[in-house]
């Protein structure tokens, strides 16, 4: 079992704030692949970072690979986190770094300090970085600077790190949000093939519901911090999807009569 959540509640700030995730029950077996879907603000990112042991739950029980990460020593929790790869939607890549260095950073936990330092000047295994980039359609970017990549290229550069990691679970937040349809399919196919090849668990949040339905056997629908359904895709109906996203369309903003539109426009810039 990769993840087991029983009646889990998560808040963003300790103390008085309202829970972001309420009483979640979720079991994810090792090697399972599932898509997390739901409207903006539903709690998908919070759930992924909770699974990655980046958020300490406020209540309920939570185990990762059979262990409660928050009952472990700091060192043991650190070791457990090394088995989890969290790919955030906006990857925090050092801007002036070369792509090759950014991708090889996935190997840092396994290198001595000297090897890591030397790799900054002469990349230790550029072929491995290149192979990983090729699988995400970025083979020509090996020596590009990270801050000269497009948003979608940065996202895939971060995912290429995943291929060089030794993680047993991939927690991936909206990996295709900045990609065209062909690259989106390639990216999901690469993630899923890698997870299957090493029997890693894949939990992937997606805004593209049709992609989630096409690519994942299990769909978890989240809304207002609660699991609305957790079903094999064949049992997820259009009506369930419509209910999940109901009332989520953006309403046109109506200016209050006493406030001139110009003032609102200026404020909106900041
Ligand atoms: N750092 C934070 N501090 C306080 N509240 C937060 C923080 N991050 C997110 N939230 C709140 O938690 C709720 C869930 O946010 P989360 O980012 O997990 O949702 P999401 O489903 O991933 O949304 P999206 O699809 O827009 O990325 C939202 O109400 C959000 O405002």
Automatic annotation (TrEMBL):
<dbReference type="Pfam" id="PF00005">
    <property type="entry name" value="ABC_tran"/>
</dbReference>
<keyword id="KW-0067">ATP-binding</keyword>
<keyword id="KW-0547">Nucleotide-binding</keyword>
<feature type="domain" description="ABC transporter">
    <location>
        <begin position="3"/>
        <end position="249"/>
    </location>
</feature>
<dbReference type="InterPro" id="IPR050086">
    <property type="entry name" value="MetN_ABC_transporter-like"/>
</dbReference>
<dbReference type="InterPro" id="IPR003593">
    <property type="entry name" value="AAA+_ATPase"/>
</dbReference>
<dbReference type="InterPro" id="IPR027417">
    <property type="entry name" value="P-loop_NTPase"/>
</dbReference>
<keyword id="KW-1003">Cell membrane</keyword>
<dbReference type="InterPro" id="IPR003439">
    <property type="entry name" value="ABC_transporter-like_ATP-bd"/>
</dbReference>
<keyword id="KW-0813">Transport</keyword>
<dbReference type="GO" id="GO:0005524">
    <property type="term" value="F:ATP binding"/>
</dbReference>
<keyword id="KW-0472">Membrane</keyword>
<keyword id="KW-1278">Translocase</keyword>
<protein>
    <submittedName>
        <fullName>Phosphonate ABC transporter ATP-binding protein</fullName>
    </submittedName>
</protein>
